[in-house]
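S1.2 Input.
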Amino acid sequence: MSENVAKLENILGYKFQNLALLERAVTHRSWAYENIPDGDEEKIREQQNESLEFVGDSVLGLAIAEQLYLRNPKSSEGDLTLMKHHLVSTQTLAKLAQEFNLGDFIRVGRGEEKTGGRRKQALLADALEAIIGAIFFDSGYISARAFVNRVFVEELKNATPKTSIDYKTLLQETLQAEKLAAPVYRVVKTEGPPHDRTFFVEAVWHNGKVHGQGNSIKAAEMMAANEALKMLEIAKTSKQ
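S1.3 Output.
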């Protein structure tokens, strides 16, 4: 693995002080379960990348939020939120991971390998977040932020509310795939003066209900749809 890790270092453009962090960042839980003797859960957790991914997700979110604020000082909170969600989405992360050929370096178990795990968007996105977390632990937030800014430079340059993910369409397609009716959106209340109003929207579907808010009805609906997608993903994961 050390040769592959050194090669990945060059591709990433970051030199690790502790290569073990990078090795862990590209280790999927399926590999850890197959290669840790006696199924030692504690050792498995220490070898796989999920904890690093958890930290990397937060570091990424902060770095992207900072850049969006600096690049779009006149944008509303709703527009900044839409752009941020697009930039840190699984789709965007997986696309960037593919540009690094990150799938070639991820350690996966035999079963995951057979089902094309190296090409799965979620697995690629998780590994990139884990790498960001690894850089954070290796040399701090400034280095991790510099890496994020470099990797996301084109995405940040092209980010606008209009080019961000249409969560309403994505939610509708997700429900349709489950043969369920499209969600219904309803404004439940508004707050603030006419020139600075906040809208609160409720999204209801077959067996779920969530809320979103924004500086326009559209932005509030988008946020509600995004929360619904998160809820559906959590429900899907819990059934696996």
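S1.4 Remarks. The chain has 13 helices and three strands.
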